[in-house]
Structures are given as structure tokens and as C-alpha cells.
Design brief:
CATH architecture of the largest domain: Up-down Bundle
Number of helices: 21
Oligomer: single chain
Number of strands: 12
Number of domains: 2
Radius of gyration: 37 Å
CATH topology of the largest domain: ABC transporter transmembrane region fold
Largest sheet: 6 strands, mixed
Structural class: alpha/beta
Strand order of the largest sheet: 8-9-10-5-11-12
């Protein structure tokens, strides 16, 4: 029950509303219990108008045995028995409706608010995780947990919790009515209850186990759906529609099987209750027949008892279903709390200081790094590199040499395995994460844009920027021309991942976004590698404006883009093998010369064609 206790922690801020809802549900339970108590007087008094005039008894208290009369609750001016009973029935049903409505609303408010807080906590936790977390957890499965698993918890903690409180109080007060009417008969009737509760508990444990499998299957369906929709162009290009359809069908079939197993277990409780209920009713009728004959019980008393027992049947049946739903929710809760309990790989040290400015240099000192899931050991080994403030440093080398990994260590997307990265003499692990990343702008190779307006994409992360600042950044990034040609200009929705824009336009939007961020350190990760000549020319012009007055680390496969760099660093297999300017390296006979010659030989072949 540890998960249940942790879940209650999210309810604590709303405990006053929860207490009030419990009181209202208790009031609703009392009104449910009064209904069978009013049935007895109907048979014994209202349907026998010739009977003697006497106060209308409702019940006797269990402790003192003192009778409680209906006359005590109605105005003294009302003397007619039927009028009193009819008025009491109307008031009881009115109060039941009011109590039920108020309690149901409040407990749903508490449940929905608590689960909203839980979903936000999980989302914030996921946002704080480093890149390693997303490498080991697929997007589809994370979305399934944040939405589907928490939806199951929401169902259990909102209207199902309301139903639980309602049915518990109904059972409590109906049991009081049964014991007050004939406690011996009540005890005999309830002896069959363990034969229902024990199997129900076992069914609940099986349901929790089955629910975990169903959640895993749901996550798999979501993962396939997310991958197929995101990669729809690849699917069509390879003619893999039938393959993806079979994958989805198999995953959906596994989910159907898990859901059917859940339904089969959940449906067992109802036949059990109905069968033992039938046994109880047959026994009661046999007993009542004898008691009424000898005058030990009136027809009204027996009617009260039977109606109370029949009314008890429905809440007991519902409670078993509620128990099963709570078991399913607990299974979902376990998965959600697994994400919350997973430690963050990138954490801010308690004594971390803010990075106020960047003035001197970035130093990689004996840096080593390997991905946790890497099969080939270290990706970077003993990297020593200094980037002075205001320098443009280019990183080149074959694919897989470690260029992108090297720059991802600077904003702490990953932490070094050995050595240290220093900014102005401060280890980046001693700096506050937010202030560190505010001083670094990144223009990636694949720009991610949101399904939002152009303006909101440009001001992403800087919501305080004015439209004037946005336009200035757009002009400097050479993208205002195509923005003004859009239907709604800066308010145009550009589609998921910016699908309504070309590759060059997306890249220039990313450059404008970096201009607005105005960070002193700039990382360009192969920003022009996938562009045509015209788009590359526009992007290069925009990059020129962006690089002015900043410290720049450039990753590039096209060596023509790094000729004017202050320093070129050549990496191969995770090590620095050459360092120098273009003029120094192009004739040094090393890897840089080979890469340079290879690229220009290929360019000559293209020209010959």
C-alpha cells in the first residue's frame, strides 16, 4: 500500500474539501438508511387507517433501546399519519439528492486536482532528466504513462472515490437498520459475506497483475503509433505500410487479450454476490413466514428488513467492482512512481553558483566520456582543448569521431566520465544549470519547431521579447522576407516540426531564435549540411550576423564553411589528432588534408557530370 499512501500525499492540500465531502456522503448514507425505515410504517400504519392512534416509531437505538419517533421530526400541527410519512419520504429523497450532489462534486474536485498535480509532477520530472533517460525510454511509452496510466488513477481518485465513500456509508447505515430490526436475523444473513469478500480480494490481486500487463501493452501500441505517424514519409518511401499495419495489429491483439483477461476477472464478483444473495433471500422468506405466523414480527418489520437487505446488495456489489478498479489504479500508480523514483543523471550541486557572465575561456581538461549504453567503451578519451573568448573554433572529423558528443558536454546534456570542463575557471558541474544554459545558444543540424505561430517559435524560451525585437532578429537571420509572404505573417501556424517550411527556412528560424537568446557562447552543429546551394548562402549570411561578437564552436562536414575559423580541431575515434588553422592543416598530410582533398575531388566529379 506504499503507492496508495504516496498518492494520498497529493490529496493533502485539498483535505478540507475531502473532509467536507466525507461529511456530505455520510449524510447521504443516513438518508439511504432512512428509506427502508419508512417502509415499515407504510405497511403497519398508513395502509391500515383503522389502526389505533399512536406515535409512528422509526427505530430503537442499539445502545439504550429507546424508540425514535417520526412525530419528533415533523411540525406538531401535522397529525395525519400518512401526511407525516409522505412528507418524510419527500424530505429524505430531497436531502439525499443534495448530500449526494455536494459530496460527489467535492470528492471529484479533490481527485481531479490531486491527479492534475501528479501529472504535472511527472511531467516536470521527465523534463529534468538528461539525454540518457530519453535514450532508454521511448517517447510512446512515456506518453502512455503520463496520459493513460494517470488517467486510470484519475478515474479511481475522482468519481470512483466518490462512489466508494457513498457506498461505504450506505452499507454502514443499512447494516445499522438490519441490526436494529432483528440483530439475530442480521447476523445469520451476513454469515455468507466472507464467501464473497475472500474470493473478491483474490480476484483483486490478479487484476492488479493483469493491469500491469495491459499498461505495458498500451504503451507498446502508443510507441508503434508515435513512430509510424512521426516517420510516415519513411514508411511510404519503403512501402512498409503492410509491415507497420501487422505490427500495430499484433500489438493491438495483445492489448485486447490483456483487457479481456481483466474483464473476465472483474466479471467473476457479480455472479458470486448474486448466488449467495439468492441463498440469503430464500432463507429469509422461510424464517419470516414462521415468525409472522406466531406474531413475533409484523409485515412492516419484515418489509423493512428485506428492503434494507436488498438495498445492501447493490452497494456491496458496487464495492467489489470499485475494489477491482482501485487494484487497476494501483498497478498504474506503481509505473508512474517508478518514473518519479528514477534518479536524475544530471543534477545541480547544492552549492552551485550562477554563471553571471563569460569573459575568458572554455577549457576541456583531460575529458573522457562514454555513453552508458555504449558497446565499444569510451567515445571521448583525454580531450584537452581551450576555446578563448571571441574565438571561432571548428570541430571536424569523420562521422562517429565524437564531435557532437564533445559539444553536448558543455551545456551538460551529459556529464563527463572523467576530467572536467571549465568556463572562466569554474567547473560546469559547479554552476547552476539554468544560468549555464542561458549563456549557450545552439543551432542544431535538425531544427525542432513547434506547432505554433512563427512569433511564438522565435520567442521560445524568451516570452518577454517584444514584437519589435522579434522582427529585428528575423531580419538579421534573413527570414523576414518569407515570413511576410505567409498568410498570417508572424501569426502563421507553421505545423508540427515546422513542416510548412523548407529546410533552409527552418534553419533561419533557428538562427533568429538564437539571436534573440543573445548568449555569449554559440554552438553550430552542422547547421548547413543538408541545404542546397542557395539556402546555404542565405543561412551562411544569417550565421555571419549571429556569430559576430560571440565565442563560436562549429561542427561541420563541409570544410569550405570553416576556412576562416581561428582554430580547427580534428577529431578521430574520440581523440584530438590535429589542431591548427586551415592553411596549416591543409598541407600537413594528416586527416584534415585527406578530408579536404576528398571533398573537393567529389565536387570536381559533380561538376564534370
Amino acid at each position: 500500500m506504499n503507492e496508495f499512501q504516496r498518492l494520498l500525499g497529493y490529496v493533502r492540500p485539498y483535505r478540507l474539501r475531502l473532509v467536507l465531502s466525507v461529511l456530505l456522503m455520510a449524510g447521504a448514507g443516513v438518508t439511504y438508511g432512512l428509506i427502508p425505515l419508512l417502509v415499515g410504517p407504510v405497511f403497519d400504519r398508513a395502509l391500515k387507517p383503522a389502526g389505533p392512534e399512536a406515535p409512528v416509531a422509526l427505530f430503537k437505538t442499539l445502545l439504550t433501546g429507546a424508540p425514535v419517533y417520526l412525530n419528533d421530526f415533523v411540525p406538531s400541527a401535522i397529525h395525519n399519519e400518512w401526511t407525516m410519512i409522505a412528507l418524510a419520504i419527500l424530505v429524505v429523497f430531497l436531502l439525499r439528492g443534495l448530500f449526494d450532489y455536494g459530496g460527489n462534486y467535492l470528492v471529484n474536485y479533490v481527485g481531479l486536482a490531486a491527479v492534475t498535480d501528479l501529472r504535472q509532477t511527472v511531467f516536470d520530472k521527465v523534463l529534468r532528466h538528461g539525454a540518457e533517460f530519453f535514450e532508454s525510454h521511448s517517447t510512446g511509452r512515456l506518453m502512455s504513462s503520463i496520459m493513460n496510466d494517470i488517467d486510470k488513477i484519475q478515474v479511481a481518485t475522482s468519481h470512483i472515490l466518490a462512489d466508494l465513500l457513498r457506498q461505504c456509508f450506505v452499507v454502514l447505515f443499512l447494516l445499522y437498520v438490519l441490526l436494529e430490526t432483528d440483530w439475530r436475523l442480521a447476523l445469520v444473513s451476513l454469515t455468507l459475506l466472507p464467501f464473497v469478500l475472500v474470493p473478491t480480494a483474490r480476484i483483486g490481486r490478479r487484476i492488479r497483475h493483469i493491469s500491469r500487463h495491459a499498461q505495458d501493452d498500451t504503451a507498446e501500441v502508443n510507441q508503434i503509433l508515435q513512430e509510424t505517424l512521426s516517420g510516415h514519409q519513411v514508411v511510404r518511401a519503403f512501402g512498409a505500410e503492410e509491415y507497420e499495419s501487422r505490427r500495430f495489429l499484433l500489438a493491438s491483439s495483445r492489448l485486447r487479450t490483456s483487457n479481456l483477461r481483466y474483464v473476465a476477472q472483474q466479471a467473476l464478483a457479480s455472479p458470486l454476490i448474486e448466488f449467495f444473495g439468492a441463498i440469503t433471500i430464500v432463507g429469509l422468506l422461510t424464517y419470516a413466514r414462521t415468525q409472522i405466523k406466531v406474531g413475533h414480527m409484523t409485515t412492516g418489520q419484515f418489509s423493512t428488513f428485506v428492503i434494507a437487505l436488498l438495498m445492501l446488495y447493490e452497494p456491496v456489489k458496487r464495492l467489489t467492482g470499485i475494489h477491482n478498479i482501485f487494484q487497476q489504479a494501483i498497478g498504474a500508480t506503481q509505473r508512474v512512481f517508478e518514473y518519479l523514483d528514477q534518479p536524475e543523471a544530471i543534477q545541480e550541486r547544492p552549492a552551485a553558483v550562477p554563471m553571471k557572465r563569460f569573459e575568458k575561456s572554455i577549457v576541456y581538461s583531460r575529458v573522457g566520456f562514454s555513453y552508458p549504453s555504449a558497446f565499444n567503451g569510451f567515445v571521448l578519451d583525454k580531450i584537452d582543448l581551450e576555446v578563448k573568448a571571441g574565438e571561432v573554433v571548428a570541430l571536424v572529423g569523420p562521422s562517429g569521431a565524437g564531435k557532437t558528443t564533445l559539444v553536448q558536454l558543455l551545456p551538460r546534456f551529459y556529464d563527463v566520465s572523467s576530467g572536467a570542463i571549465l568556463i572562466d575557471g569554474h567547473d560546469v558541474r559547479d554552476l547552476q544549470l539554468a544560468s549555464l544554459r542561458q549563456r549557450i545558444s545552439i543551432v542544431p543540424q535538425e531544427t525542432f519547431l513547434f506547432n505554433d505561430t512563427v512569433a511564438n517559435n522565435l520567442r521560445y524560451g524568451r516570452q518577454d521579447v517584444s514584437m519589435r525585437g522579434i522582427r529585428e532578429a528575423a531580419r538579421a537571420a534573413r527570414c523576414e522576407e518569407f515570413i511576410l509572404q505567409m498568410p498570417e505573417k508572424y501569426e502563421t501556424i507553421i505545423g508540427e516540426r515546422g513542416v510548412k517550411l523548407s529546410g533552409g527556412q527552418r534553419q533561419r528560424i533557428a538562427i533568429a531564435r538564437a539571436l534573440l537568446e543573445n548568449a555569449p557562447i554559440l554552438i553550430l552543429d552542422e547547421a548547413t549540411s543538408n541545404l542546397d546551394t542557395e539556402s546555404e548562402r542565405l543561412v551562411q549570411s544569417a550565421l555571419g550576423n549571429l556569430m559576430t561578437g560571440r565565442t563560436v564552436i562549429v561542427i561541420a562536414h563541409r570544410l569550405s564553411t570553416v576556412r576562416r575559423a581561428d582554430k580547427i580541431v580534428v577529431l578521430d575515434r574520440g581523440r584530438i589528432c590535429e589542431t591548427g588553422r586551415h592553411d596549416e592543416l591543409v598541407g600537413a598530410g594528416g586527416i584534415y588534408q585527406k578530408l579536404y582533398e576528398l571533398q573537393f575531388m567529389e565536387a570536381d566529379r559533380v561538376m564534370d557530370l
